[in-house]
Design a protein that fits this description.
6 helices; FAD/NAD(P)-binding domain; 22% helix; binds NADP nicotinamide-adenine-dinucleotide phosphate; elongated; 7-stranded mixed sheet
Length: 319
């Protein structure tokens, strides 16, 4: 770290953070990306990505590597450290690292993402990517003409089950209660879809696999207490998503689930503090949408920096 003062500090080097880095470097912003793990974030955990334009099929790890290489080709500085706090200020924001270092930045983009909530049952971690999934849009294609189980009863479980029904032969939904939480319109669509069968008052207690991946799930009826094994090729878990919002400063507006509210520039209610990707309240969580957020926020950050430095503040959307 040659200097401790930046135009832009980006926290998180997933697709959103790295896309922001590319646009920021092209806008000649003095930019630092801070990442505590490896660049790519959650994408690294995705076996195959088949819906990122330009790549018919690419492993999540390779796509992450390409994002990082592209960003580094502009000379983007990526620091492998943990951020402890962000202290917003009127003119500059302070980004405090785990060793006590304080960095100053005119703008900050927070891109720390989130994680699908886990069931924490045996087999869930072991068979992740081998039949256990948290994303039907990403992995559903591998279950064409197969039998899958969706766990959960909210909008996500309902929407993803309907998506899977277009591909799979049979979709079971295991829900722990006797009524879905999902909106009525989705409930009606579930009822109308003959490939979907809801298993009421049912929880999954173990996921089992053979050499080809997941082949069964143990289900428990919470009313009778009885357990049974059911043959399935895949288990899709949608029991909520937890945003990584620990670094969001006090006073930043969030929704009831802890996702940050932003305007169309991805700017929070604190000027110069942007939130992008899965941490932001948005319609859908996809790699391409995080990358798009990164672009938007970097362009808006460039405008903010120019205005702060007293330059023209002209439109930067053609970079
Ligand atoms: P959610 O609404 O919190 O639903 C989570 C579901 O998982 C609930 O049915 C819950 O059961 C169940 N669940 C939670 N923990 C569980 C566990 N340990 N074992 C078994 N089941 C468990 O989460 P979501 O569906 O991801 O939706 C999150 C937010 O995004 C919601 O506000 C939702 O409306 C919104 N969303 C909207 C749309 C849309 O409008 N098209 C699409 C997706 C998401 P209980 O019902 O018993 O609590």
């Amino acid at each position: 770290m040659a200097d401790e003062s930046y135009d832009l500090i980006i926290i998180g080097a997933g697709p959103g953070g790295l896309a922001a880095g590319i646009y920021a470097m092209r806008a000649a912003l003095k930019t630092l990306v801070i990442e505590k793990g490896i660049p790519g974030g959650q994408v690294n955990l995705t076996d195959e990505v088949e819906n990122y334009p330009g790549f018919e099929r690419i492993s999540g790890a390779e796509l992450s590597m390409r994002f990082a290489e592209h960003a580094k080709s502009y000379g983007l500085e990526i620091l492998n450290r943990e951020v402890k706090t962000i202290k917003p200020g009127m003119d500059q924001h302070l980004v405090c690292l785990d060793d006590g270092t304080e960095l100053r930045a005119l703008t900050v983009i927070l891109a720390t993402g989130g994680n699908p909530r886990r069931l924490n049952i045996p087999g869930e971690n072991d068979y992740y990517g081998k039949g256990v999934s948290y994303c039907a849009t990403c992995d559903g294609f591998f279950f064409r003409n197969k039998t899958v189980l969706v766990v959960g009863g909210g909008d996500s479980a309902a929407e993803e089950a309907l998506y899977l029904a277009k591909l799979a032969d049979k979709v079971y939904i295991a829900h722990r209660r006797d009524a879905l939480r999902a909106s009525m319109i989705l409930q009606q669509r579930i009822k109308d879809e003959c490939k979907i069968e809801v298993l009421w008052n049912t929880i999954a207690t173990e996921i089992k696999a053979g050499s080809e991946g997941v082949n069964a799930v143990t289900l428990k009826d919470v009313v009778t207490g009885q357990s049974r094994d059911m043959a399935v090729d895949g288990v899709f878990i949608f029991i909520g998503f937890t945003p990584n919002n620990q670094l969001v400063p006090a006073g930043v507006k969030c929704n009831a689930d802890g996702f940050v509210l932003t305007d169309e520039k991805c700017e929070t209610n604190i000027p110069g503090l942007f939130v992008i990707g899965d941490l932001r309240q948005k319609y859908s969580r996809q790699i391409i949408l995080s990358a798009a957020d990164g672009c938007t926020a970097a362009l808006a950050a460039a405008y903010h920096v120019e205005a702060k430095k007293g330059k023209s503040g002209k439109d930067v959307c053609q970079l």
